[in-house]
Design goal:
The complex is a heterodimer. Chain A is an all-alpha fold. Chain A is built from one helix and no strands. Chain B is α+β, with helices and mostly antiparallel strands. Among the domains of chain B are: 92 residues; 81 residues, Rod shape-determining protein MreC, domain 1 (Thrombin, subunit H), CATH 2.40.10.340. In chain B, a hairpin with a 4-residue loop joins strand 1 and strand 2. The chains are: A mainly alpha, B alpha+beta.
Chain lengths: 42, 293
């Protein structure tokens, strides 16, 4: 039990990092989609 | 198994941290990327508009214009022609055409400047010639004025001379009248002379009935060939060829001395016979004495 606790903490931390990456990409996507957009109208 | 999971989680953590770092960097660049893209789009649109807009009175407008919406299409797999390449190519083509027109315009401008320089040079030459011609005209006008003044003086002289000529013509006419009168008087005198000569000849005829002496030339001279004192006549070397006539009295002289007078009684071809007038005989007539009518 004592050896799995740091591992879990690391897993949670890695998950949070990936969530941050996804969040930032979503914000960036939304920024580029906002008018005036640099992309073609869908 | 747990160890492998531990390595995987650690690796996942490291990759997540790296992805987050990179994403943060890209996220911070988002405004710059979008703004740059939009400014470039607007610049391309403005350049296309400027290239197609007419500039009166020399640059004509063009119907094509880049589509601003198509500039936003980076990739369209269904219709590749409807991407930003089309308006960019259009702007490039317009720019090249305008560049060709500009080049032609510069060429024409250079030709026009050369022509203008030539024309200005010709204009300067023409102005110099004009100035020279004006100077010459001014000089000739001065000469013309001098000539006009001279002509006026000559005309006055001609008028004066005409007046003199008129006076002289009057004098000439008066002289002609005088000459005509004198001619009439001369003709009257001539007629009177003829009349008097006729009268004189009539008197001579009355004095010399034969009238032969009239035809004998005055100054007729000859010589005594033979003297017959006992018969009271002499023979002369004058005859009909000398126009001697009978009844003509001639003087006989010897040098400057008067000898006497003879009267012709008969005239032959080359000789004549004359009686000695004893009343006028100063000395005896001898052969060789000269006779004179």
């Amino acid at each position: 039990m004592s050896s799995s606790k740091p591992l879990a903490i690391l897993a949670i931390l890695a998950t949070l990092l990936l969530a941050g990456v996804v969040t930032l990409q979503a914000l960036e996507w939304n920024f580029y989609q906002a008018e005036p957009s640099v992309w073609a109208p869908r | 198994m747990a160890k492998a999971l531990k390595v995987f989680i650690v690796l996942l953590l490291v990759l997540g941290a790296a992805a987050l770092g990179l994403e943060v960097m890209v996220f911070l660049k988002r405004q710059e990327l979008k703004g740059r893209t939009q400014k470039l789009e607007q610049a391309v649109v403005d350049v296309g508009r400027n290239l197609t807009t007419a500039r009166e009175p020399f640059i004509q407008g063009l119907p094509q214009s880049p589509d601003a919406e198509m500039l936003k299409v980076f990739r369209n797999d269904l219709e590749p022609s409807k991407t930003m390449d089309a308006p960019l190519n259009l702007v490039r083509s317009l720019a090249e055409n305008r560049l060709v027109e500009l080049n032609n315009t510069y060429t024409d401008l250079k030709q026009t400047r050369d022509d203008l320089a030539t024309t200005r040079q010709e204009l300067a030459d023409t102005r110099r010639q004009l100035e020279t011609a004006r100077t010459e005209i001014a000089r000739l006008e001065g000469v013309v004025r001098e000539k006009d003044a001279e002509i006026a003086a000559r005309r006055r002289e001609i008028e004066e001379l005409n007046g003199k000529v008129a006076g002289m013509e009057q004098e000439l006419q008066a002289a002609k009248d005088t000459i005509a009168k004198a001619e009439e008087e001369r003709q009257e005198l001539k007629d009177r002379i003829v009349s008097l000569e006729q009268t004189l000849r009539a008197i001579d005829k009355s004095l010399d009935p034969s009238g032969a002496a009239q035809d004998v030339p005055r100054g007729l001279s000859g010589q005594v060939l033979v003297v017959y004192p006992e018969w009271n006549f002499v023979i002369l070397n004058l005859g009909l060829g000398s126009k001697l006539a009978p009844n003509v009295e001639m003087l006989v002289h010897r040098g400057d001395d008067l000898v006497g007078k003879i009267r012709v009684t008969s005239v032959k071809e080359k000789i004549a016979i004359a009686d000695i007038e004893r009343d006028f005989e100063k000395m005896p007539i001898r052969e060789g004495d000269h006779v004179l009518f």
